[in-house]
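Review form for a predicted model. The reviewer records the input and the model, then writes brief findings.
Reviewer: anonymous (R2)
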Amino acid sequence: MKPPQVLQAVPAKNKQLPNTIKFAFGGLSGCMATMVVHPLDVVKNRMQMSGEGGAAREHKTSFHALRAIAQKEGPAGVYAGLSAGLLRQATYTTTRLGVYTWLFERFSGPTGEPPGFLSKTAIAIVAGSVAATVGTPCELAMVRLTLDGRQPPELKRNYKHVFDALIRIAREEGVLKLWRGYVPTVGRAIVVNVAQLVSYSQSKEMLIESGYFKDGIPCHFVASMISGFLTTAMSCPLDIAKTRIQNMRVINGKPEYTGMVDVITRVVKNEGVFSLWKGFTPYYMRLGPHTVLTFIFLEQMTKLYKQYML
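Model under review:
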């Protein structure tokens, strides 16, 4: 009689998501997070424009700005530009997280070990640059839609929604003007991706290696908050330059600002060095939770897809 055969477990192959799913999950997780934190984007942009050129500040604090917007423009005012915010996530964040995740897996070791720090940095720069190129038109539309409510009636652009904004900008200013503010947008995207995506991965690894955290939602939350703070501190000056360039008007054929360096120089001269971090609180309050929610949604969707679909 032959001895019974012993079935040996075959090691499961490292499950990989299709590229289309990576891109879709990246955009969907960003959209879900945007639905929650968009009012903070509105407040951030209003704070960054407050006191422009040394004028008296319109808003003393983020809470004052939020209350003033709600009182003057109604509850819908705090969600001004939401359509552009969602389309930005569907383009910029989809591309950013999709490219980053794809390159991250491509440069991971044969047994799944993550890329080194320098490789992560290079991956983040590429992901941010590509995403900024794709997402700048939506970023431009969102800045203008969120700021239109602060303008006097004669200066309002009165865009109805993101598609109306994009069509009118292309028709009234030229197609290439859809990429106005491209340089600071790319610069901010590179800084954001290096600070956010790399620091998130690095923080997550360090937290797990410390022994105090396991790979789960608490770990993702703490890593995301660390990442969000570093990202805010490093990218705020570029973000204020981007906001002012994209909202500026051309008067008698002459733009209000000649470029990113001009914005930063004039902010420092007329408003003080620390004004480069104007809007820091709503920026972090927006970026921190948005980072947390985006990565939590992304991690959970990826986990469920691998569990039930692969």
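Findings: Confidence is low (pLDDT under 50) at residues 5-13.
Further findings: The chain is about 70% helix and 0% strand.
Recommendation: see findings above.
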